[in-house]
TrEMBL record:
Its EC number is 2.1.1.-, 3.4.23.43. PANTHER family: PREPILIN LEADER PEPTIDASE_N-METHYLTRANSFERASE-RELATED, TYPE 4 PREPILIN-LIKE PROTEINS LEADER PEPTIDE-PROCESSING ENZYME. The keyword Transmembrane helix applies. It comes from the Bacteria. It catalyses: Typically cleaves a -Gly-|-Phe- bond to release an N-terminal, basic peptide of 5-8 residues from type IV prepilin, and then N-methylates the new N-terminal amino group, the methyl donor being S-adenosyl-L-methionine. Plays an essential role in type IV pili and type II pseudopili formation by proteolytically removing the leader sequence from substrate proteins and subsequently monomethylating the alpha-amino group of the newly exposed N-terminal phenylalanine. Pfam families: A24_N_bact, Peptidase_A24. The keyword Magnesium does not apply. The chain crosses the membrane at residues 12-33, 102-124, 130-152, 164-188, 208-234, 246-270. It comes from Thermoclostridium caenicola. GO terms for molecular function: aspartic-type endopeptidase activity; methyltransferase activity. This is Prepilin leader peptidase/N-methyltransferase. Keywords: Cell inner membrane, Cell membrane, Hydrolase, Membrane, Methyltransferase, Multifunctional enzyme, Protease, Transferase, Transmembrane, Transmembrane helix.
């Protein structure tokens, strides 16, 4: 392939993955709504929550339908939350960015899988302050595949890649967080702020990213969560007692670590 053809191929794959991300984002909206209610994500087919009319394919084109319908149900004119197209766009952007960073590779495929789950976790935790076990297990199943793959071909997120990197990853960040949760439980009783969902979420993250990037993800999540909490408290958006879900910060921290983690780590150790 010539240079032009190679560039054309990359743009083509990028566009395909962005569109795929929009469609997966549309499915994630269903998951975010139904999983906490313990409903099936497959049946019944999508319907308007207000008038119960079953939606047609034309009503469910990611982002496009929302714009064409001006954010209202075609049948009863009830408002559609703007978050639906935003989740679709966000998923499309995440897919595109992961492809730009890791190219046409098994790593990209693995990360598309991980971040699809993490995006669902982000919004479910935001809405309900829970991280469903089912999503953690789905993540671990994917993590088991990358663990096996890494036995045969070094998985480039693990630097250096050893056979046990994802296994230490499973227990590193989650182990630290579990210890913090235990201490919180001992000091504050049941009000200890750390949820076990956050602990469990770091098991698949550690499998996909290896122990170094998992620890960096945890560090970044704590920093982002701390800064945001201080900002929310000072600006009085939240009260002192109200709990802030940690899941969204874990997802954001993991995304930063995924994109820049190995550079951040080598830069840091070059300083000392
Ligand atoms: Zn309706």
């Amino acid at each position: 392939m010539g240079i032009d053809q190679a560039a054309g191929f990359q743009v083509f794959v990028g566009i395909c993955l962005f569109v795929l991300g929009l469609c997966i984002g549309s499915f994630l909206n269903v998951c975010i709504y139904r999983i906490p209610l313990k409903q099936s994500v497959i049946s019944p087919p999508s319907h308007c929550p207000n008038c119960n009319t079953r939606l047609t394919a034309a009503d469910m084109i990611p982002v496009v339908s929302y714009i064409l319908l001006r954010g209202r149900c075609r049948y009863c004119k009830a408002g559609i939350p703007v978050r639906y197209p935003l989740v679709e766009l966000l998923t499309g952007m995440v897919y595109l960015i992961l492809y730009i960073r890791y190219g046409f590779s098994v790593e990209t495929l693995a990360l598309l899988y991980l971040f699809s789950i993490l995006l669902a976790v982000l919004f479910i935790d935001l809405d309900h302050m829970i991280i469903p076990n089912g999503l953690v297990l789905l993540g671990m199943a994917g993590g088991a595949l990358t663990t096996v793959y890494n036995l045969f071909v070094p998985f480039s997120l693990y630097q250096p890649s050893k056979w046990y990197t994802p296994l230490i990853g499973m227990v590193s960040a989650s182990g630290i967080l579990f210890a913090v949760a235990l201490i919180g439980l001992l000091i504050y009783g049941n009000d200890g702020a750390m949820g076990m969902g956050d602990v469990k979420l770091f098991i698949p993250i550690g499998m996909f990213l290896g122990w170094k990037l998992a620890l960096l993800s945890l560090f970044l999540a704590v920093m982002l969560g701390g800064i945001t909490s201080i900002f929310l408290l000072i600006s009085r958006i939240v009260k002192r007692k109200s709990a802030i879900p940690f899941g969204p910060f874990i997802v954001a921290g993991t995304f930063i670590a995924t994109l820049f983690g190995n550079s951040i780590i080598s830069w840091y150790f070059a300083q000392i």
